[in-house]
Design goal:
mainly alpha; 434 Repressor (Amino-terminal Domain); 6 helices
């Protein structure tokens, strides 16, 4: 999975659940995940919740969500590479 939206899709597939139902299960309003999809990224909190639900690294997915929300720059590109390196170690 390369993005938080990939994480969302994986959760919906794994649990055979709609975005609306998953939003409610996580304690958010029914349209929260659909709005996140429109924005192109999940919030760090929601990414962490989904990662926890799927028994994945909460820290990794929260960090990825933070980086996705930032405009691309040398600094964010370097941090993205670092995040991938740490994940693959």
């Amino acid at each position: 999975m390369d993005s938080t939206l990939d994480l969302l899709d994986a959760a919906m597939t794994e649990f055979d659940i709609s975005a609306r139902a998953l939003s409610l299960q996580l304690g958010h309003s029914p349209w929260t995940l659909n709005r996140a999809r429109e924005r192109g990224t999940l919030s760090p909190v929601i990414a962490g919740q989904i990662a926890e639900l799927m028994q994945l690294s909460v820290e990794h997915w929260m960090a990825r969500a933070v980086l996705e929300s930032e405009p691309s720059s040398r600094a964010t590109d370097r941090l993205r590479r670092t995040l991938e390196h740490v994940r693959n170690s």
